[in-house]
């Protein structure tokens, strides 16, 4: 099978996954709105004002009677785009050794299987910014992967940061910190002299991303002084919340154990993905309810890319040694 055929087939599969997700999003909001008698989708808050405004505007322009239809359409578009970009990085990020066809196929199969874990948590607690935030992370990682070849990729990345800060400010803030941290670690690491330029790029881009996100968050606090952050740290220690958090993280904790034992070499992009997920976890536990897993879904999705790549490499090596 050629790469073109592979991408078409995988794209079709991902598209139908996202169609099903969009259907459940629409059905979920329809049921929730009629049982709880609340507007759908919810209004914007301090961290998220862009998507509700865009959805309401689109609904008025196209004279739709139900905003949840528009929300589902945005989920379909952004969800498919995010998953397709993550699939491309799963199979196309460079490795120390060239991929064999069976290695590439194994990566795809593992990726398609692993993404089912986070996608299962999108509904019924779906908000309109969850999948767009996943698209931001996927697109940002895609830009980082290409920056070493062409620094102009920094421009669309920073433009995405500016847009995302009005969708969910916390996501680009953590992503920027993780990017700068990975660049700094690579810079100070011995034997990394040849990576000085790439490390400096990561530090600059990460710092700019974090500063833009923090600056706009301050602006939003000034614009909406009545909004405040609720600390959920102690409520999250309830059995119900800890149970759900354990179920959410179990597949990826298993992967973390594989990383500790196997110690694979990781690309800078993979390190940024892991760093972002790790850094966001304490923020999620402190400011969000652990039972609302959709908060953490964008970071779980980018971890699927890393998990599929590393697991495929590990399994392929084991298969080769056994034959």
From TrEMBL:
<keyword id="KW-0472">Membrane</keyword>
<feature type="transmembrane region" description="Helical">
    <location>
        <begin position="173"/>
        <end position="188"/>
    </location>
</feature>
<feature type="transmembrane region" description="Helical">
    <location>
        <begin position="269"/>
        <end position="289"/>
    </location>
</feature>
<keyword id="KW-0812">Transmembrane</keyword>
<feature type="transmembrane region" description="Helical">
    <location>
        <begin position="108"/>
        <end position="125"/>
    </location>
</feature>
<keyword id="KW-1133">Transmembrane helix</keyword>
<feature type="transmembrane region" description="Helical">
    <location>
        <begin position="295"/>
        <end position="317"/>
    </location>
</feature>
<feature type="transmembrane region" description="Helical">
    <location>
        <begin position="244"/>
        <end position="262"/>
    </location>
</feature>
<feature type="transmembrane region" description="Helical">
    <location>
        <begin position="69"/>
        <end position="87"/>
    </location>
</feature>
<feature type="transmembrane region" description="Helical">
    <location>
        <begin position="200"/>
        <end position="224"/>
    </location>
</feature>
<protein>
    <submittedName>
        <fullName>Uncharacterized protein</fullName>
    </submittedName>
</protein>
């Amino acid at each position: 099978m050629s790469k073109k055929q592979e991408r078409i087939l995988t794209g079709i599969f991902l598209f139908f996954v996202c169609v099903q997700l969009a259907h459940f999003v629409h059905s979920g909001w329809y049921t929730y709105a009629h049982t709880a008698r609340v507007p759908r989708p919810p209004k914007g808050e301090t961290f998220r004002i862009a998507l509700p405004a865009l959805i309401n505007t689109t609904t008025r322009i196209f004279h739709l009677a139900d905003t949840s239809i528009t929300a589902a359409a945005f989920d379909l578009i952004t969800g498919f785009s995010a998953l397709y970009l993550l699939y491309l990085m799963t199979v196309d990020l460079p490795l120390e050794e060239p991929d064999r066809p069976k290695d590439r196929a194994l990566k795809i199969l593992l990726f398609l299987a692993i993404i089912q874990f986070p996608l299962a948590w999108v509904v019924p607690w779906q908000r309109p910014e969850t999948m767009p935030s996943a698209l931001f992370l996927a697109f940002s990682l895609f830009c980082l992967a290409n920056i070493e070849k062409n620094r102009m990729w920094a421009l669309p990345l920073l433009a995405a940061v500016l847009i995302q800060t009005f969708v969910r400010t916390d996501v680009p803030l953590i992503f920027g910190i993780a990017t700068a941290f990975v660049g700094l670690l690579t810079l100070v690491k011995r034997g990394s002299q040849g990576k000085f330029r790439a490390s400096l790029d990561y530090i600059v881009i990460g710092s700019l991303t974090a500063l833009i996100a923090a600056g706009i968050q301050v602006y939003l606090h000034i614009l909406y002084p009545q909004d405040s952050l609720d600390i959920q740290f102690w409520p999250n220690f309830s059995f119900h919340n800890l149970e759900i958090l354990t179920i959410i993280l179990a597949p990826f904790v298993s992967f973390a154990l594989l990383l500790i034992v196997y110690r694979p070499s990781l690309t800078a992009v993979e390190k940024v993905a892991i760093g972002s997920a790790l850094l966001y976890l304490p923020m999620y536990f402190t400011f969000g309810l652990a039972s609302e897993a959709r908060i953490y879904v964008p970071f779980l999705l980018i971890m699927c890319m890393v998990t599929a790549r590393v697991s495929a490499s590990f399994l392929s090596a084991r298969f080769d040694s056994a034959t």
